[in-house]
Design brief:
Structural class of chain B: mainly beta
Radius of gyration of chain B: 16 Å
Strand order of the largest sheet of chain A: 1-2-3
Strand content of chain A: 15-25%
Distance between the termini of chain A: 64 Å
Helix content of chain B: 10-25%
Number of helices of chain A: 3
Oligomer: heterodimer
Order of helices and strands of chain B: HEEEEHHEEEEE
Radius of gyration of chain A: 25 Å
């Protein structure tokens, strides 16, 4: 791993178009600023790793889960719509209620 | 005379040929091109988003690669009506979305050990889809307001 020493206000350049600025150093904490093309995403490592781990676990899903998960939805007729949770929710969507009874 | 009609062609190409057993307009299968890979699956950018239930709530997010990953995702609008995360402007630009309201959001579902009762949805990193261009990205939110594991059961 390349190691460089920089002071506040100084910059590191990575390739042609990525800049890392040392904004502030206080105690054991460093504030960094980044300039990069928008297609370059920048994450805190631990957050990125959490998402990656969540995705790896999520990819183990099987089709067995489908029925039960569908039943957890707020309303089976609410695709894209904001349905009230009231008891008469089905009455407000007569067309979809027909689907359910068919 | 005709060049402008080209713009509508990709959407029509997605019309499903298979019969769908619901009278309501069924959500169509979408081919998605990710602007960056899902974290954890760096080699996969091309997916299809396939409706998994008649109500249009659950979707398979399936890599087109033979050994690629498959996820289950829920429509955020249908499942979490109050979910309105602030999407970073850079992500919207990358997806070609003029405003956040044009985005379709999906949350990846995890079912630990097949136990549906403890299933969770990832609200921290929604899959943001531009359904006009079929470009998508799993955007990692930085506001800290949305959990990675929100219980799905109610």
């Amino acid at each position: 791993m390349l190691t460089l020493t920089r002071s506040v206000g100084e910059t590191i350049r990575i390739g042609d178009d990525i800049e890392v600025h040392v904004v502030e150093v206080r105690g054991g904490t460093v504030r960094l600023g980044f300039k990069a093309p928008r297609e370059v995403t920048i994450h805190r490592e631990e957050v990125y790793r959490q998402i990656a781990e969540a995705n790896l676990l999520a990819a183990q899903v099987t089709a067995d889960s489908l029925g039960a998960l569908a039943a957890f939805a707020p309303s089976p007729t609410a695709a894209g719509a904001i349905a009230p949770e009231g008891v008469d929710a089905s009455a407000t969507t007569p067309a979809a209620a027909e689907d359910a009874s068919a | 005379m005709t060049p402008t009609s080209v713009a509508t062609r990709p959407a029509r190409a997605q019309a499903p040929a298979a019969p769908v057993p619901v009278p309501a307009p069924a959500p169509a299968v979408q081919a998605l091109s990710l602007t960056e890979p899902m974290p954890g699956f760096p080699r996969h950018r091309d997916y299809v988003l396939v409706p998994a239930d008649p109500a249009g709530v659950l979707f398979w997010l399936q890599s087109v690669a033979k050994e690629g990953p498959r996820f289950l995702a829920v429509s955020a609008a249908a499942y979490f009506p109050d979910y309105a995360p602030a999407l970073p402007g850079s992500a919207l630009v990358e997806l070609g979305l003029p405003e956040a309201a044009g985005a379709q959001l999906f949350c990846v579902v995890t079912v630990p050990d097949g136990d549906v009762a403890s299933a969770t949805a990832n609200l921290r990193a929604p899959l943001v889809v531009n359904s006009d261009t079929h470009r998508a990205c799993q955007v990692v939110l930085t506001d800290g307001l949305h959990p990675i594991r929100r219980p799905v059961r109610r």
